[in-house]
Amino acid sequence: MPPLNATSLPSLAGTVSVPTYDRSRLRTGIVHLGVGAFHRSHQAMYLDRLLERGGAEEWAICGVGVLPSDRRMAEVMAAQDGLYTLVVKHADGSLDARVVGSVVEYLLAPDDPDAVVEKMAAETTRIVSLTVTEGGYNTDPVTGEFDAGDPGVVHDLQLGAAPATSFGLVVEALVRRRERGLPPFTVVSCDNIQHNGDVARHSFAAFAALRDPDLGAWVDREVPFPNSMVDRITPATTDDDRAETARRFGVEDAWPVVCEPFTQWVVEDRFGLGRPPLEDAGVQVVEDVDPYERMKLRLLNAGHQGLAYLGRLAGYRLVHDAAQDPLFRRFLLGYMEEEATPTLRPVPGIDLDEYRRSLIDRFSNPHIRDTLARLAFDGSERLPKWLLPVVRDNLAAGGEVRRSAAVVAGWARYSEGVDEDGQPIEVADRRRDTLAASARRQRQDPLAFIADRELFGDLVDDERFTTPYLEALTSLHERGARATLDTLVAQLAGA
Ligand SMILES: NC(=O)c1ccc[n+]([C@@H]2O[C@H](COP(=O)([O-])OP(=O)(O)OC[C@H]3O[C@@H](n4cnc5c(N)ncnc54)[C@H](O)[C@@H]3O)[C@@H](O)[C@H]2O)c1
Ligand SMILES: O=P(O)(O)OC[C@@H](O)[C@@H](O)[C@H](O)[C@H](O)CO
Asked: What is residue 297's predicted lDDT score, i.e. its pLDDT?
């Protein structure tokens, strides 16, 4: 079996769908920072669809790895000429595979930061997009302020330093464009953050202002940052995925990507230098993305947080196993119906009953084999941004918060780093040490975990939250996750 690359591509056409467009004629119009699993299952897939239809030849993608840990991706992209296999896994076990051809270049910033800056500064680049995770915006979880003390930021602000962060790279490219009389590109964040464009604007303008206040004001004023809502469950690729891609589709791909069938991208129509005809690929281009992103982050992503900690404590490792458990289904649906949905705005064209049910079905797809560990990664960047806004809105409106409080208590118990069988839990979080220290104190001082005001603000002062939180935490300590959920679900059903 030949390895996947431009030369072997024609020979694969019999076993897998491959690009029929001429990749040698494509031009790069988009530079994407953070080419991970999600970019490859989502934005690059939409662009591949457009390229297949024709008429978007100037919108091919140059991928960029910002971190040294992107080296493996750089090697694979170089060896495979940017090609990779996207394997869609349906709930009935059937698979579709397609070799995606829209990523035509890849640059690793730590090797050559100037090449990355020049690529973004080039006149042909009209969009810079990002999937650099929630933590990649370097903001305080409660205040939203940019962290000027971050070591990468401090480094990038030194005179003459080669940029090593997204902020340093993007702002330097904007500076060069401005000096050359070129208008700024549009920055499109595709991360799971409410108002991701506004957050990106705030962070990039704050960094630019630290270089020069006038530059900060210019970025804030002149660079378009549309908000977007993005959705497609995409787990990390495993060796089994590689083997299955070879066996089922005859493709020897060092880094395929697997995902669910569902996909959605809703983006605001604010592009300074034009955009691809995204609608033709099924993207919803709207005036205001807020209702969509609120719905998705508060139902899907906060729902994921509900599974991540309590599911792991109850002994599960895989998302679908927890989601198929009737107790977890009732708990999750209850959270979605009674706590998240009352905080949403009407969402054009969406039946929320149907949306909630479809989420449970999506979580239950056994072939995705998504892990609870992936959902629990960097909880300190996620839970405060997805679940705590639901709590705050409900407290303000006199609404229900008991299930949300149980999820937060689950996170607190999980952060102790030991499961209910006494086995270690690998807590992967940039604040792991702080979380572990406060979680370890909570057996004596039960509010210790949520006393961290950087994460929880003033929630610790509100008895309407602390009372159910303490009940859940005590029950998790004394009776475990299952019994805690059982009681809560029964109580709330009778409420
Ligand atoms: N995987 C999904 O199901 C999914 C779905 C919707 C949205 N997303 C969004 O995409 C993001 C990435 O998910 P993924 O599955 O591609 O993860 P991944 O781990 O496969 O890739 C993450 C990429 O982000 C880069 N990155 C991380 N921190 C960074 C930083 N501080 N600066 C610059 N680059 C940084 C990594 O180097 C890597 O290239 C998520 O955090 C989320 O916001 C993911
Ligand atoms: O990717 P993260 O870390 O932002 O969040 C974990 C999951 O909730 C998330 O990846 C979902 O699978 C995704 O948002 C579905 O579209």
From this structure: 97
Q: How far is CA 50 from the centre of its chain?
A: 23
Q: How many CB atoms lie within 10 A of CB 352?
A: 16
Contact criterion met (CB below 8 Å) for 260 and 39: no
Mutate to test the pocket of ligand 2, among 89, 192, 332 (most ligand atoms within 8 A of CB): 192
SS3 label, residue 415: coil
Reduce the DSSP state of residue 180 to 3 states and report it: coil
pLDDT tens figures, 480-489: 999 999 999 9
Cβ of 259 closer than 6 Å to ligand 1, yes or no, is: no
Average pLDDT, the chain: 97
Domain that holds residue 367: 290-494
Domain identity same for 54 and 185: yes
In a domain, 322, yes or no: yes
Say if CB 272 and CB 183 are below 8 A apart: yes
Q: Is the CB of 36 under 6 A from ligand 1?
A: yes
Q: Which of 331, 336, 356 is nearest to 492 (CA)?
A: 331
Evaluate: CB of 67 within 6 angstroms of ligand 1.
Answer: yes
Which residue owns the Cα nearest ligand 1 atom 26?
Answer: 132
Judging by DSSP bridges, how do beta strands 228-231 and 264-268 pair with one another? antiparallel
| Together in a domain, 349 and 487 | yes
Task: Tell how far the Cα of 300 is from the centroid of ligand 2, in angstroms.
Answer: 8
Report the candidate in 74, 115, 70, 83 with the shortest Cα–Cα distance to residue 5. Answer: 83
- Contact indicator for 376, 308 with CB cutoff of 8 Å: yes
- Give CA–CA dist 448/456, Å, rounded: 11
Predicted ipTM of the assembly: 0.99
- Cβ burial, residue 157 (10 Å; 0-12/13-18/19+): middle
Instruction: For residue 148, give the 3-state DSSP assignment.
Output: coil
**In the beta sheet, which residues pair with residue 266?**
229, 284
Distance CA 209, CA 191 (A): 23
pLDDT of residue 2: 86
Q: What is the CATH number of the domain that holds 467?
A: 1.10.1040.10
Query: What number of other Cβ atoms are within 10 A of residue 404's Cβ?
Result: 29
Do 274 and 296 fall into the same domain?
no
Ligand 1 pocket, residue 69 CB under 6 Å = yes
Can you give the length of the chain in residues?
495
Distance CA 57, CA 67 (A): 29
User: Is residue 345 exposed (0-12), middle (13-18) or buried (19+ Cβ within 10 Å)?
Assistant: exposed
Asked, for residue 370, whether it belongs to a domain, the answer is yes
pTM: 0.96
End-to-end CA separation in angstroms for the chain: 61
